[in-house]
């Protein structure tokens, strides 16, 4: 969701933008992992260069709370049945930090566990 808005992917990002507006207006708290920040820097740097990518991330950091990726989250991801290792890291990092939802367009790669996995549209319908 954050990546879609950040690079303005050609998918419909209307609901993702709405969620970020809810975060900006302090209606909901937004969290992301340090892994997403690293991935986002890598992609943005290629598109707009180092300095602009860093400035973008500085602004995003004001908006979102960043949770760490712990050694135990990586260990749990390595031993999980997730098909996508990065999604497993995201899931176990969220679980360790008592995150209420994971919002992603990529729900198919998440197995049903303890945290609800919602698309941006599903989240917007309920909030």
Approximate helicity band = 55-70%
Could you spell the SSE succession in H and E letters? Answer: HHEHHEHHEEH
Pick out the low-confidence regions.
Answer: none
The helix tally amounts to 7
- Overall strand count: 4
Tell the overall outline: globular
Give the biggest sheet: 2 strands, parallel
Rounded to an integer, what's the Rg over CA atoms? Answer: 14 Å
Give the strand line-up of the largest sheet: 1-2
Secondary structure: elements and pairs:
Layout: H1 2-7, H2 14-24, E1 31-33, H3 34-48, H4 50-63, E2 65-67, H5 71-78, H6 85-96, E3 102-103, E4 117-118, H7 120-126
Parallel strand pairs: 1-2, 3-4
Helix pairs in contact: 2-7, 3-4, 5-6
Characterization of the model:
With 127 residues, the chain is mainly α. The protein has a domain of 87 residues. It is 57% helix and 8% strand. The protein contains 7 helices and 4 strands, in the order ααβααβααββα. The strands form 2 sheets. Strands 1-2 form a two-stranded parallel ribbon. Strands 3-4 form a two-stranded parallel sheet. Helix 2 crosses helix 7, helix 3 runs antiparallel to helix 4 and helix 5 crosses helix 6. The chain is globular, with a radius of gyration of 14 Å.
Short description:
Helices cover 57% and strands 8% of the residues.
């Amino acid at each position: 969701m954050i990546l879609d808005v950040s690079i303005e992917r050609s998918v419909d990002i209307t609901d993702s933008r709405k969620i970020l507006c809810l975060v900006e207006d302090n209606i909901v708290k937004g969290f992301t992992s340090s892994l997403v920040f690293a991935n986002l820097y890598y992609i943005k740097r290629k598109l707009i260069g180092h300095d602009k990518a860093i400035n973008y991330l500085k602004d995003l950091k004001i908006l979102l709370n960043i949770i760490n990726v712990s050694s135990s989250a990586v260990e749990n991801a390595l031993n999980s049945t997730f098909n996508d290792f990065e999604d497993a890291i995201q899931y176990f990092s969220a679980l360790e930090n008592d995150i209420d939802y994971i919002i992603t367009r990529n729900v198919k790669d998440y197995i049903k566990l303890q945290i609800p996995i919602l698309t941006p549209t599903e989240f917007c319908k309920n909030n």
